[in-house]
Design brief:
The structure is a homodimer of 339-residue chains. Chain A is an alpha+beta fold and 339 residues long. Chain A has two domains: 187 residues, Ribosomal Protein S5, domain 2 (2-Layer Sandwich); 135 residues, 2-Layer Sandwich (Alpha-Beta Plaits). Chain A has nine helices and 13 strands. In chain A, helix 2 runs parallel beside helix 3, helix 3 crosses helix 4 and helix 6 runs antiparallel to helix 7. At the A-B interface, helix 6, helix 7 and helix 8 of A face helix 6, helix 7 and helix 8 of B.
């Protein structure tokens, strides 16, 4: 057992029921999410504890569905989008490490089938929805009956942003202050905003060369500007939550865009410089800003990749599609699948 | 007299000789300069006092030459690159405000003729060399015999970076600690590095929309990341001076590039975001970084504009010209004009 897994296991020993009864099967769906107030920087890398709170919008029907059954062989079997993963596949190893947190000492070979509804062309990572769906499916299959707080914490172990993928709509992931991170969990922000739209403008859909995890580590270790980030991000998150509750798009958009650019600025100042944004990303931003000067109420946010995500309301969908013909528009509140 | 001019006048009252005898004429040349360790942020906007020290390389034959004579009329006359400026021209007003700091209560109409040897296509601002040459020419024409410290301080009143344009080669502008800024002056760093080359890669040579002065004010007032800049910039300046003294291109280049990117990161995080770098600037950087991965020892620095400046040694001039055919290569130590 690695040191990281040991640290998690100690916490789980306290929070999971001592035994469980395998239900035979469990299925769960979890949506992908886009942070409007970003998570960047871990205060504990083993537990994925963040330096600051974050707030996201879930992407409705864009997400992951995972079904867990007992394996028909003595081995674990993992299928991802209908393809069986090799035992040595890095994705398979991460999934099994996560499953082992729940399964612990019991020897129950599982068949884990995940399908992802996020279009590959969107270039969105599926780790958030993937680990959230896996966590929920494990809870159901193993009959654990975990609280949402513990589920969110478990999902966080797989991928930080998975802590926010257990709900539809807006979700806030509280930074927390406990060293074991038991208070660093997500909770829904109860606001319905049916007119809200998200567009994904694909810039570069190739897998990223530098993972978010490595990017955070490098930024924390070398960026002289990072020291100012955690406090600012915490303030932003509070103000962004207020803008969400007020359903004030202009306020929310301006804050979310500034927050994202500040995050990328901390990376740009890392040594050597880390730039997920490419010249084409800047081209999208330049075009957006020109349109906004003309009155379009649309705002950008960017994660650890080159793609640009836009925030606007339904009445501007046509303008966005004209401006960015290759964009995909998502209506987060439109008939989201059952969780 | 404006408040700013009053603040300067008080200082000059102490530092300039009480009277002077007009010599009839004075001529001076001053080079443009590029900061390898950037000046960004004023701790006193009226006196152009910086938040941090900076270090530059002068551009040899690229600069400004100014000749001052008594005007043949009762009015001041200002010529810039053979064109007579209107009395209401903003550039003329700035020049006359600077001249008045020296001329004070005496009524001596002057003819001020400046020519600029910086190719317009390079898109380099000429305010640093312009105010340095004007300051030196005034000292000579008015027979003031000012010390280099006072000359550098006077040049700074016209444009912060002009404090560094009074010498060829490397120049350090000390931040200083005195409230009146009398210790915030430039001095040469005595290092000869004949193989050093600077290339200007022009990206956008149109006049910038947002002056450096306004950019600094906006960044200080709104960028949450700026708080980390002054200390980092001061450290960078010390390390960059050491790399210059060691004539260590790789060390100097990496530091100068990181320092410039950190400066731009503080602006990118301003609210709203301030981006002098355009998608084309990022394209140049991306191409440079790819070539560096292949072994090319060239490094970038960028100021408050879209152009990219490269730092390398003579042996790589051909590679640079192949990579960036529209670049202009400068040899800073090659037969610089007399100052």
């Amino acid at each position: 057992m690695t040191l990281d897994a040991g640290k998690k296991a100690d916490i789980l020993e306290r929070l999971l029921p001592s035994g469980f009864s395998f239900k035979g099967s469990g299925t769960a769906y979890a949506p992908s999410n886009i942070a409007l107030s970003k998570y960047w920087g871990k205060r504990d890398a083993a537990l994925n504890l963040p330096c600051n709170s974050s707030l996201s919008i879930s992407l409705g029907a864009w997400g992951s569905k995972t079904t867990i059954d007992q394996s028909s062989t003595s081995q674990d079997e993992i299928f991802f989008n209908q393809v069986k993963l090799e035992d040595t596949d890095p994705q398979a190893l991460k999934i099994l490490a996560h499953v082992d947190l729940f399964r612990r000492t019991q020897n129950i070979p599982l068949r884990i089938v995940t399908s992802n509804s996020i279009p590959t062309a969107a270039g969105l990572a599926s780790s958030a929805s993937g680990f959230a769906a896996l966590t929920l499916a494990l809870d159901r299959a193993l009959g654990l009956g975990l609280s949402t707080n513990v589920l969110s914490m478990m999902a966080r172990f797989g991928s930080g942003s998975a802590a926010r993928s257990l709900w539809h709509g807006f979700v806030k992931w509280e930074r927390g202050i406990a060293p074991d991170g038991t208070d660093s969990v997500g909770h829904p922000v109860d606001v319905s905003w049916p007119e809200l739209r998200i567009a994904i403008v694909p810039v570069d859909t190739a897998p990223k060369k530098f993972s978010s995890r490595d990017g955070m580590t490098h930024t924390l270790a070398t960026s002289p500007l990072f020291q100012a980030w955690p406090d600012q991000a915490e303030n932003d998150c509070t103000e962004i939550e207020a803008a969400v509750r007020a359903r004030d798009l202009r306020k929310l958009g301006a804050l979310a865009e500034s927050n994202a650019l500040a995050m990328h600025a901390t990376m740009m100042a890392a040594r050597p410089s880390l730039n997920y944004l490419t010249p084409d990303s800047w081209q999208v931003l330049t075009r957006l800003w020109a349109a906004r000067e003309e009155g379009l109420a649309a705002y950008a946010t960017m994660d650890a990749g080159a793609n640009v995500k836009l925030l606007f309301e339904a009445r501007d969908s046509d303008s966005i599609q004209t401006l960015f013909p290759n964009a995909t528009v998502i209506a987060p509140f439109d008939n989201p699948p059952e969780l």
